[in-house]
Specification:
The protein is α+β, with helices and mostly antiparallel strands and about 220 residues long. The protein is built from 8 helices and 7 strands, in the order αβββββββααααααα. The protein has helices at about 1-20, 100, 125-130, 130-135, 170-180, 190-205, 205-210, 215-220, and strands spanning about 30-35, 45, 55, 60-65, 70-75, 75-80, 90. The chain has a 7-stranded antiparallel beta sheet with strand order 1-7-6-5-4-3-2, covered by helices on one side. A hairpin with a 6-residue loop joins strand 2 (about 45) and strand 3. Helix 5 (about 170-180) crosses helix 6 (about 190-205). It is globular, with a radius of gyration of 20 Å.
Length: about 220
Amino acid sequence: MRYLLIVLSTLLVSLTPARAEVRVGVGISVPGVSIGINLPAYPRLVRVPGYPVYYDPGVNVNFFFYDGLYWVFQGDNWYASSWYNGPWDMVDRYDVPLYVLRVPVRYYRHPPSYFHGWRADAPPRWGDHWGRDWEQRRSGWDHWDRRSAPRPAPLPSYQRNYSGDHYPREQERQQTIRSERYRYQPREPVTQQHYQRQRDQNQKGPQDRDRGNPHERRGQDRR
């Protein structure tokens, strides 16, 4: 029994740091990931009536734009990016902005199977799906004065000039272009964090970026 307790304690100690490395501040759990979205051109964004959110009715993806970021719901996870083809940050479900959560079911172009039977003109029943803890921590998420909704953020239409081979894949390049062409100041903490993380990354030199990502550096050495 004593040996078993020692083994369990050792495992817990070894697992805790690894778990802590995944979450990056408030909201963003996994930064800079690819989720398989590759739009051929800038999306056709249409305002969700009565909401400060846009969606693209022509894609088979749950694709939205709110507060200066694109939002995608895929595989029961939320992702955000300042550019329409990513890379994407996975956002903790506890930190997804309220107005994104409130978008009615009918505007999900690729709804998951558990949406079946839910009202098309109402938000998804996130509390039923994600459980009591989520419901308690996001209490009141589905109640608001529709007359007090904020104005939508301006669309980053400058990105129309960047498609196909001209799309900037490097986050540093994306941040440079956005800072020159898009002056919107976000309201949401998770959006502010996303912008700040990219600014910090852009200010680092190549050596600093390599030092901060040893796994990527080892991969480059093997090539």
